Here is the input.
Amino acid sequence: MAARHAPERSGSRPKIAFIKRGHFSGTNCRTREELERNFPEFDLEEIDLGLDLLKQHPAIMLLNWLWVFALYGWAILRHRRPVSPCFYYTPFIFHQIRRLLLAHLAGREPEFAFTISTQSLFDAHLPGLPHFIYTDHTHLANLRSPSFLSASAATEKWLALERSVYQHATRVFVMGENTRLSLIEQYACDPHRIRCVYAGSHIDTSLVPLDNAAFRNRTILFVGIDWERKGGPELLAAFHRVLARLPDARLRIVGAAPAITHPQIEVLGRVPIDRVKQLLTQSTLLCLPSRFEPFGIAVLEAFAVEIPAVVTRIGALEHLVTDGETGRVVPPGDIPALADALTDLLSDPEKSQRFGQNGHRFAREHCTWEAVGKKLRAEIVPLLAGQNQDAEKQLGLQSEIPTSPAPRQ
Here is the structure.
């Protein structure tokens, strides 16, 4: 990327362009907070691609839905692909977002020190500026998941555009080791340009006393809105096996609201975030047996209150949970193995407590939003300084180059 000399700003402070799409499961809000906290020398301008750009152009959105059904309609009609996520997987919307973003910032490039975007569904770089991405996935990594059907694959044209997103980034920050490996192995990205900085939990992480009868109340907590994608049906089948061995076991379901009636199962549906923390403290363990999971912040929320997690070997989950140290990791869709893992921890309070403490130690050291913010600053500031030095050298060399003599007549 060509070096750029920092412009004179007549006393105004340089800005960060924070470019995002919606809430991103609460991650965008926390990312913004950490950018503001860790880069106090910059102002921050937030640009929401939906609210600030696309919703101002309903005709573009309508045309894109036509593209969605032209490209993915057969899979949608066969219920092999959900409709909503397809919106951002057309070359048409990729190019339109790029065009609208450049128009939105046209002539204002000198105001910004760098740009940073979350997710990797669009290209948000500005020519001549350092650009950073913070994401929890790549599309090809998603395809490794057994439940991510081949019908869910994007077109080759869109995949080529996704590759260009990573190529235009100065650094790509990822939440999980699985995404880092995907960028290196599947996208041929330079390993030195990829950094795993993890993410943090969305609950208050201050420790409070547990209310789970010293890990003897045999309560499993499921947290997730998407019941099927998060492996809810598999958990339900495994729980019935657990009850055959431990009749006093209980299951609480938070977020999702499946139609289940059972004396040992409590379906709570959506609850406030503070209530999630309380429910975690009242549980022996968290179970997240996902079929597809790019990251899994609920695991960090369990570790924050010192309870272990039982997860599937999917996405970042197998890197967040160390089997036999901070919880149990089982193959996706393996109901007997899931039942065995749940029984193992529910019937051994000392082991559950030890695993929960180990998980808390891991999360405290690596997976807090404060840690993410510090890692972002540690990576970005030296790159900005290096760019300015390169620009100054370039300007100095230009001033020393003698003017060519006029040709002899």
